[in-house]
Every structure is written in C-alpha cells, then in structure tokens.
Write the structure tokens for this entry.
Amino acid sequence: MITCDTSFLHSLYLIDSHTAKARARLRQIRDPEERIGLSPFHRYELPNAIRLSVFRGLRDCAAGDAILAAFRTDLTDGRFELPTCNLASLLAEAERLSGIYTTDGGYRAFDILHVAAALQFDASDFLTFDTKQSRLALAVGLRPWP
C-alpha cells in the first residue's frame, strides 16, 4: 500500500506549487493494490485545512464547499483505500515514534500520526512534500516520495 501525509492531499485538492507533481504521481498509480490508503486523520485534517483556507480568505465558501465535495466524492467512489484503523494501537505507535524521533527531529503530532498509520497499514511508500516528514518516513523504513 501507498500512503501519504496531508501535504500531498492538499496539493491534489488545493492548487499550490506541488499540484502538477502530485496529480502526475496519482496518475502513475494504476495497480489497485497500490491505491493510496487514508487514515481517519487524513479524513479529518484535509477538510479542516480546506475550511481554514476559507477562513483565511484564500477562497470563498462556494469554492471551499466544491473542494470538500470533490474530496468526499473521491472517498465514496473508492479512489482511496480506507483501511481499518485501530486507534489505540496507532496512538501507541505514534507515542513510540515520538519518543524516538521528536527530540532530535522536531516532529509535529500529525506528522507522527501519519507515519504511524503508514506503518500500521504496512505501507511501502509515503507521499509527502514535507521535507521533515520525508526524513521521518525514511527513518522508519518507508520509501518517501518525492
């Protein structure tokens, strides 16, 4: 399985400097076994980021609603894998990773949660545009992209 952080999803749905690269990478994923797996944290964090962009005046409510609708449609249509997530074990893994890596690497809680979910899902690849999160993914044995 392939998984990602919210920076990758953000680039898919909210136009930024990485959008073309993110969409090209998504088009390369053709094998159903390699669909991108999303945790409940992705399904919370991206919609919150979209709403925050409306609050900050980066887009109007109608545009925000359209982006949210597109994301929900992609979830419903099976564009992403939605594996079962054991929240207690995921949080235990995140705590373990935090204890090992945060003091030296300065990782945010959601960065660690996304990597812990990737490990719980037995992901091989981790899509992110966040350099620090890429280092964490690599440190735990994931293949970060780009």
